Amino acid sequence: MKLLLILLACFAGPSFESAVLFLNGVSSMEELDESVISRYRALELSPLELNLCTRSRLLSSGLMSAFQVASLLDWRERSGDILSYTELALVDGFGEEYAEALKPFTRLSSSGPPGKRRSRKLHQNLMLRGAGRLSGELEYAAGVKYKAELGETAELYWSSRNSYSDPHFGLGTLSGAYYGRKHLGKLILGHFNARFGQGLCMWSGFSLQPWSSVQSLRRSGSGFSPTGSFSPSYCGAAADFEYGRWSLAAAYSVPDKMPMGSVCFTGQRFTAAVNASREAVGMDIKLGLPGLGLWGECVWRGRFDAVAGVMWIPAYDTKIGAMAKWCSGVPETAAGVSSGPFEALAYLSSKQFRSMAKYSTHFHLGPIGINPVLRLAATRKDTWRVEGRGVIRLEYSGWDLTGRLDLVHCKDDTSWLFYAEAGRGGGAFRAWLRWTLFRVDKWDGRIYVYERDAPGSFNVPAYYGKGWATSLSCAWKPSRRHGFYCRLSCVEYPWMTDGKASKYEVKLQYQLSL
Predict the structure, then answer these.
(1) Cα Rg of the chain (Å, integer)
(2) pLDDT exceeding 70 applies to what percent of the chain?
(3) In a domain, 43, yes or no
């Protein structure tokens, strides 16, 4: 049976960007932040071993929910190692699309009976980055990231950088983790993340807003996890322990003088946990039924906060979700539907209203792949902001050609931006050339655009003014160990009456993998 599954497996995985968008349930890269992209880039360089990792490490990766991890471990116990992504799609809670999206960030190495031995091979990755920018005066910035991984047993992160605005180059982020066996899940020393429940009690770093997509209505906490982010949240010690279906986690952040803890029980159809910190105490629960998911969390922090939601899957590739929240005295509600290429979502609170509708599909016309995307969004805070976006992407034999048009209407003014990008994404040498034209007269009408950059960099500039921009991004990987990256860019404002300064930037990066 497993030989048949291997023969049926798909060998071509999705692109990095499309996989990240699917796993985070967002419609565009602009809705994410640097810490998210950095985490996925680290997983791309050192993929997670699905057949060898323990429950604690699978959860720490942030790739799967607690239900998916429990389902994966149960499959490994009953059926042995997973030998293909087609087989992974058969595991309860995954499905074909989810398994496909995991390809860039996971591996299916087999070591015989599950859990009998773990790899202790040392993998190391070093990234060196330098950048220079000319905008009135010459500015410099640099960064370094290092990761060492001892099979599925231990991880070590170190990262530090300065910026154009802050030339100081300090110690940065230092985080180490040991993953145990039997009762010890993991032990973390140094910087760490803390993400539990729906985020009311403990949730460090970036989190999706509930108007990003239907999937963003529900969060999946990864517990305590090591981090290589340039901007970590906590520093101290953290550990978790497992006793059958029970798990216990505890941590202490020294700079914040913050103790944290969680006790969780995982059943076949539900998980329930009590979470506590110096600032709050609460309880969260998730219930999974065939075609239906329920979740909620309530917290006391001198006031009562709560959130509850439901996700209904009436048919394949169709989700209907709703969420209600009370936080800091502000009521919030959101509801949405996703079916095939269509998705729509509406969010309402006492402070703002947001809505979004999107259509995205992919089809082939002979050897040419065509990916059209249409997106319409409306927001009201003090005033209305209406955004429209159209994207068309053509793919042919490793070559990409993309065109995108953004229109924004806000305060009786209409802004627009158009870019065309061409490039080749396959092989040892990859390059993309982009040309952008924009007119944004008011700051409230600014347009954010995700731009290609070196691995580990997150580049989403806000376009404002009248002008044009161009950029060239190149990557050369002569071998598995070495990678060279370069980005040249400039922004000109020839039609600005106030003489806004032009910007020129050069970024260089080297990646070493051992």
Answers:
(1) 23
(2) 94
(3) yes
Strand-pairing partners, residue 250, are 239, 261
| Tens-digit pLDDT profile for residues 159-178 | 998 888 887 888 889 999 99
**At 393, is the secondary structure helix, strand, or coil?**
strand
Quick one: tokens of 360?
């995205």
Residue 444: strand, helix, or coil = helix
Location of structure tokens 């396959």: 426
Structure tokens at 130: 């330098």
Which residue from 263, 293, 152, 111 is spatially nearest to 201, judged by alpha carbons? 263
Give pTM, 2 decimals: 0.83
DSSP-derived secondary structure for 40-73? HHHHHHS-EETTT--HHHHHHTTSS-HHHHHHHH
Cα→Cα distances 225→231, 271, 284, Å: 14, 19, 19
Distance CA 246, CA 239 (A): 14
Neighbours of 182 (CB within 10 A): 9
Specify whether the CB–CB gap between 105 and 40 falls below 8 A. Answer: yes
Whether 80 is in a domain gets the answer yes
List, as own/partner pairs, every contact residues 374-383 make where C-beta atoms lie below 8 angstroms and the sequence separation is at least 24, other chains included. Answer: 375/27, 375/28, 378/353, 378/354, 379/352, 379/353, 379/354, 379/355, 380/352, 380/353, 380/354, 381/351, 381/352, 383/410, 383/411, 383/444
The answer to the question of residue 79 being in a domain is yes
CB 327, CB 302: distance < 8 Å:
no
Q: Classify residue 104: in a domain, yes or no.
A: yes
Domain span at 70: 1-118
Residues in contact with 90: Cβ distance below 8 Å, sequence separation at least 6, in sequence order? none
Count of domains for the chain: 1
Per-residue pLDDT of 282-321, as tens digits, reads 999 998 888 898 999 999 998 999 999 999 989 888 899 9
DSSP letter assigned to residue 453: -
